[in-house]
Write a structure and sequence with these properties.
This protein is α+β, with helices and mostly antiparallel strands. The protein folds into two domains: about 1-110; about 110-225, Beta-Lactamase. Helices cover about 50% and strands about 15% of the residues. It has helices at about 1-15, 25-40, 55-75, 80-110, 120-125, 145-150, 155, 170-185, and strands spanning about 130-135, 140, 190-195, 200-210, 215-225. The protein has a five-stranded antiparallel β-sheet. Mean pLDDT is about 80; it is low at about 110-120.
Length: about 230
């Protein structure tokens, strides 16, 4: 129990805060711990149990890596050996998780004929609108105003990475905002700088709203240019 508490303490230090006990990421960690135990007993014959688990493989992998670091720290002088023992099981679990997430996204992908999810009313809005997949960062939908703002067309935006229109230094901030929205559900507002196709910087005020379907969670982003005198 003392070592378990030490692991959780180190994990909290690494992440800043541990996921809620009922979150998909926490469930992924519980399943990995069970799988790791079975893997040590049965070797490579053990299979991860991922039935019913719907979680971002990117966020889950971040938590699992931090947990492995915490276990190594808690093991003290034996940390390197413990890490070496658990690393193969973690690699197999993450591989299964990625495969499951990929299959889920493929099965939930809309047909080309019905890809457009933005309503006619949204299309007429003057502000730029983007629907961003919080797992991949890809643009799932957009309105004409977004295409005009970014120097392209709406249809060409769909499928691209939203981070391609951001300076690289802002990528971590956007992932933080997308993760917070996906996990907490509260609307987000912040200032950002976008880059259009020509590289021109555009200062905008951004609001993010969460929209979840069975297949994925989207961040509905509305960007309005801000003019600073």
């Amino acid at each position: 129990m003392a070592r378990r508490g030490r692991i959780e303490g180190v994990l909290a230090e690494r992440l800043g805060a541990t996921p809620a006990a009922d979150s998909p990421e926490a469930e992924a960690l519980r399943r990995f711990r069970s799988y790791a135990t079975a893997s040590l007993l049965r070797g490579g014959d053990a299979l991860p149990s991922l039935d019913g688990l719907r979680v971002s493989d990117r966020r889950a992998s971040k938590l699992l890596e931090a947990w492995l670091d915490a276990v190594a720290v808690a093991a003290g002088p034996d940390g390197a050996e413990v890490r070496a023992i658990l690393a193969p099981a973690l690699a197999r679990f993450r591989g299964a998780l990625r495969a499951t997430s990929g299959a889920r996204r493929a099965s939930g992908a809309p047909r080309a004929s019905s890809r457009r999810a933005v309503t006619a009313a949204i299309d007429r809005v003057a502000d730029a609108f983007l629907a961003i997949d919080t797992d991949t960062g890809h643009i799932a939908d957009a309105n004409p105003a977004a295409g005009a703002l970014l120097g392209t067309t709406r249809d060409r935006l769909v499928g691209e990475s939203a981070l391609g229109f951001l300076p690289e230094r802002a990528h971590d901030l956007w992932w933080t905002e997308l993760d917070a929205l996906a996990e907490g559900g509260e609307a987000r507002r912040f200032h950002a700088t976008l880059h259009d196709r020509t590289g021109r910087a555009i200062d905008v005020e951004v609001s993010l709203t969460r929209f979840a379907t069975r297949a994925r969670t989207l961040a509905l982003a509305v960007a309005r240019p801000s003019f600073n005198p």
